[in-house]
Amino acid sequence: MTDIDYAALAREAGLERVGARPSLPSYLKEMWQRRHFATRLAKYQIEASLAQNRLGLAWVVLNPLLQAAVYGLVFGVIMDRSSRAGVNFIPFLVSGFFVFHFFGRSFSQGAKAITGNASLVRSLGFPRMLLPVSAVVREIYELVPMMGVLAVILIGFGELPTWRWLLVPFILALMTLFNTGVALIAARLTVHLRDVTQIIPVVTRLLMYMTGIFYSIEEVLADNPPWMLTLAQLNPVHDYIQMVRTCVLEGQTVNSLIVITAFVAAVVFFIAGIVFFWSAEERYGRD
Amino acid sequence: MTEPRNPTVVVDNLHVDYKTFASGKAAADRRSLMSRQRGIRIVHALKGVSFVAHEGESIGVIGHNGSGKSTLMRTIAGLIQPAKGAVYGASRPALLGVNAALINGLTGEKNVMLGGLALGMSPEEVDARRDEIIEFSGIREFIDLPMKAYSSGMAARLRFSIAISREHQVLLVDEALAVGDKAFREKSEQRIRDLREQAGTVFLVSHSMRSILDTCTRVLWIDHGTLRMDGDPHDVIDAYKKSK
User: What is the full DSSP assignment across B222-243?
Assistant: First the structure.
């Protein structure tokens, strides 16, 4: 090797190590400066994914609506109705499924955010967190028309608007914090271990059945020991859905456990996700 | 040791390795690694490269396929974390690669916006430079078509134009001059010379010895992950040609 002290030479010239992870505040500041990249990427990706279809942007709403229809057919028509006595089933199903869809897509798209954009990550230097955030932004863009359709369905099935509908955006904002945290954690885990992508659909499916999209958890577990219901209500996804349902449907209620879990999960996952993702910032271009 | 010019990039004993999945014979070769995970194999792409680049230099990087040139560029740009050693730079060096990603299903114009934003410009700045970028690429009549309809040369020209639209103190160009027709190549070479005069440093990876001789003031020869030779373009290229 040579006997030149390169590190000292660099220090003298005032050069900094390239690719070093910035401190968290300056990282977030750079994120904010480049936020337009995340929002445009989200918007363009929706356009690009739908440009080939005849019905174009209508699929943003049609796809989850058709999926909800399948579950409605299986659980609403074929199976017996004791699991949701006294529930206005169609609005119950659609509100639950649309809100769950927001979570499920943020989770799966967030997980693919780094590995699926490998060529972008390999060729340009920008805060990597923009990619999973962009994935969540994309889901927010898709959620807006879905909520519009939900409003139409609610009114069509006799659930008339009340002032409580105005709370829904705040609940969804809280859920967005939670989803972002989950997306960031999933994005980093996928980089370390590709196998995570194989597990995510299973986890999402499990969460969906545990969340009570097409049955009421509160009804089904009414005769079981109370700890089972408490456990089910510690699932934040269920809590956001239950809070939305309480706002838009007659006869749905929340308790303090649901509300507290929803707030705590949002804050904890959001902060943990940011720190967890940021601490591996230097490693994302590697594999 | 006193340098007449300011260093812009210092590369200090750089080692880079890749973890990759091998199968067949390559996987069976390494018994010790099988205990961890079958078929994982470590490839040492760079084995201790050191040099100092200065303001106003235009440095050609040559070597055979697989010698580690592109890895070196990506590591200087901070896109790969070195296993050992470090790269120091005044600002984050910008890498301009042929396969810089843009979204294929979108029109050229939207890709200009996205590429500009990815480089750290604001939407207003991209709007202001859009005409200049499109003009430089010379594909104005196709700018409203999706990029997948472009020929590989057209797409590469657009990417080059986007990347070059912003002033970079250190610019890394990876094989980009190999694409495009003669007129576009001359235009890009001129642009690279201009950039160098703005007290920047340019690295150019190419297999075209002619474009290296035309644009570079210094040449690094990378061979099997080590720096084989570093010096005057004519000397290094002569030695490189003889080795073949």
Answer: EETTEEEEEE-HHHHHHHHHHH
pLDDT category at B4 given cuts 50, 70, 90 is: low
Number of domains in chain A: 1
**pLDDT > 90? residue A71:** no
Residues A89, A92, A97: CA angle, nearest 5 degrees: 120
Q: What is the pLDDT of residue B3?
A: 47
Residue A150 lies in a domain: yes
Q: Give the domain range for residue A253.
A: 22-279
Interface subset of A 99-128, CB within 8 angstroms of B: 117, 119-126
Flag if B97 and A51 touch (Cβ within 8 Å): no
| A37 vs B: CB within 8 A | yes
Point out the residue among B10, B97, B106 whose CB comes nearest to the CB of A44: B106
Here the ipTM equals 0.74
Q: Would A67 be classed as within a structural domain?
A: yes
Q: Find the CATH number of the domain harbouring B129.
A: 3.40.50.300
Range(s) of the domain holding residue B212: 55-243
The answer to whether residue A287 sits within a structural domain is no
Residue A2, domain member (yes or no): no
Min Cα–Cα distance to chain A from B150, Å:
16
Burial class (CB in 10 A: 0-12, 13-18, 19+), B141: exposed
Contacts with B192 (C-beta within 8 Å, 6 or more apart), sequence order: B58, B171, B173, B202, B204, B215
Evaluate whether A171 touches A243 at the Cβ level (below 8 Å): yes
- B23 domain residue, yes or no: no
